[in-house]
């Protein structure tokens, strides 16, 4: 390897920003090759990364001796095939979350990493978000005692723009948004609670966007104004939606974790605001975030019983980071961790096992949602794979 880790990028679409974050010539990593079958995406890559080799075939990247590691930033349903090929090519790989859209394909990825010994990293960047790190530190510090229940409300204010105008709107590409969008939060719930979902039950519906008849024709590109920060409100004014919409725009999930913790998650894609609200209740207190970025805070109530006290017992400002970038500054930290891991096998806060368990919970919850809320059991991962990844992807 050179001083800069040479990166190949598969997919230069919605998460191209992660590739640009990783392009740091002279600073640890450089993107040397990009593959994308979409001419427009490849043209964008050429303008943003003029020194990179451009390909329509991903195999050209995997076979390139000037590529040391790979970022997979393609649509979710393609992750398993591309990840397994990258691992077999001996290229350490970062797979954007979710790991894939089925439990079986996730297990294929982990099994391939185990069999090849090639390093596997998953892009669960919320583990690096300042608000999540703050809540995690408070929980580990005993601020609420032993965690007993976690509640999450996810207001997806730009959901109509980001998830109902392209491939995200189709089950064949995502399984459903209770997997695709919630994989972040399910992973955080598991991290805060110290366990994985073992039983799930969910309800949901396509309440708003399914009735909107203003759809693009099949094959027609998205409109230039497909996303605007201030427009497209109320949700019924959305135009040029995806031709097929068969995923839910609102969902509610209940979980029992393998350590006994009870958790709940709610997601709405037609809310006017966009943020996540977490509540963690233990046997000696409660914490809650108000806002999830700079200017917000995490409040802790743990000294006594009372009515509502807005001042709380502890108020912790959410730290600001120098490079906010995407996801509240999490993306640069995610890339930093991946580079260390790809080079040296350094310990990571993200986990392939946790990524697989987030998908497994989301898949089974979606099955429950579409079956009238019938409870589902979340399948465990093979013990030898759990042991391998918990050892830091080493044989012994």
TrEMBL record:
Looking at the record, the residues that make up the Gfo/Idh/MocA-like oxidoreductase C-terminal domain are 137-373
Q: Name one Pfam family in it.
A: GFO_IDH_MocA
Gfo/Idh/MocA-like oxidoreductase N-terminal domain residues are 6-124
Which InterPro entries does this chain map to?
Answer: Gfo/Idh/MocA-like_OxRdtase_C, Gfo/Idh/MocA-like_OxRdtase_N, Gfo/Idh/MocA_oxidoreduct, NAD(P)-bd_dom_sf
Annotated signal peptide = none
The UniProt family comment states: Belongs to the Gfo/Idh/MocA family.
Spell out the PANTHER family in the cross-references.
CONSERVED EXPRESSED OXIDOREDUCTASE (EUROFUNG), OXIDOREDUCTASE
What is the protein named? Answer: Gfo/Idh/MocA family oxidoreductase
What species is given as this protein's source? Answer: Streptomyces polyasparticus
Lineage of source species:
Bacteria, Bacillati, Actinomycetota, Actinomycetes, Kitasatosporales
